[in-house]
Amino acid sequence: MNRLSQPPLSAPLLEQTVDWAIASRRSIRAFLPTAVPREEIESILEVARFCATGVNMQPWRVHVISGAAKARLSSAIAAIDDDPLLNEHLADPYEYYPREWVAPYVDRRRQVGWELYSLLGISKGDKQRMHRQHARNYRFFDAPVGLIFTIDRVLQEGSLLDYGMFLQSVMVAARGRGLHTCPQAAFLKYHEVITEVLEIPPEQMLVCGMSLGYADESRIENSLVTDREPVSAFTIFHHNNKETTP
Question: Do 208 and 149 contact (CB within 8 A), yes or no?
Fold first, then answer.
C-alpha cells in the first residue's frame, strides 16, 4: 500500500466510510463458523501496522490461531477455568482495571453487565450461568480465528498506548472487510497457560486476546449496543484563556 496515494473515494464518501467503520465496531459475542481466509487476516494486519507508534517502535506481536491450535488452547484454559482450586491464585500479568472502582466507571461497568445478562435471561446471582457465559471468552465466542497479542516486557506504558492504536486499527480494518471482533482482557488471567501452549518466549507479556470472524446476527447477545457519552461530557475547548464546552 502506498501511504502517499490519493484516497479511493470522494471526500464525503471517504468520511462516511471511515466513520462507519469506527462507529459500527462493537464487541461481538457470538460468531458464525464461516472461515476467514489467511489472506484476509494478513490484509487486516497489513493495514493495522501503519498505526501511530512512538519513534517507530512497533511493539506489537501477533499470534493467529485457528483450527486444532485454537481448540487446544481453549481446552487448556477450560480445564483450569472450571476448577476453582486451580483458579484461586491466578493473577493478571498487569493491572488492566482499576484497583478501586469509582463512579462513573463502576456504573458503566455494571450497566453493560446488566444489559448483557438481561438479554441472555441470566438473573442476578445465577453464578453457574454467568460462569458458562464468561467461559465462552475462552472459545473465542466460537469465532474461527483467535488473535493473541503480546509485547516485549522491557517496554513501558507508552508502548501500551501504541498497542491500543494498533488494536483499534485491527478492529476498524476488520469492519472494512465485513468482519467483526471482540477484544478480550479475559485472557489475561490465563497468561501462563497461553504462553505455554503457544510456546511464547518468556520475554513476551500477554496484552489481550481477540475474536475475529463473521457475526451471528441471529444471536440475541449481538443486539447489545453500548452507549457512549456525548462529546460535551468529556471535552473542554480552550480558547483565549477561557474554557468552553461543545
Answer: yes
3-class state of residue 244 by DSSP = strand
pLDDT tens digits for range 64-111: 999 999 999 999 999 999 998 988 889 999 999 999 999 999 999 999
Q: Which residue shows C-alpha cell 497461553?
A: 194
Give the number of residues written for the chain. Answer: 246
Q: Does residue 22 belong to any structural domain of this protein?
A: no
**Residue 190 domain-assigned (yes or no):** yes
Rounded alpha-carbon distances, angstroms, from residue 28 to 91, 142, 206: 26, 11, 21
CA distance 137 to 187: 8
- Average pLDDT, integer, range 6-18: 93
CB 202 within 8 A of CB 195: yes
Q: What is the CATH number of the domain that holds 37?
A: 3.40.109.10
- Residue 208 CA to residue 206 CA, distance in Å, equals 6
Residue 131 has pLDDT above 70, yes or no: yes
Question: Which conformational region is residue 159 in: left (phi greater than 0), alpha (psi within -120 to 50 degrees), or beta?
Answer: alpha
Alpha helices in 11-102, H assignment, sequence order: 11-23, 38-48, 67-81, 84-87
Residue 23 lies inside a defined structural domain of this protein: no
Residue 180 lies in a domain: yes
Q: How far is CA 69 from CA 128, 145, 146, in A?
A: 28, 10, 10
Range of the domain at 203: 29-94+138-220
Total number of domains constituting the chain: 1
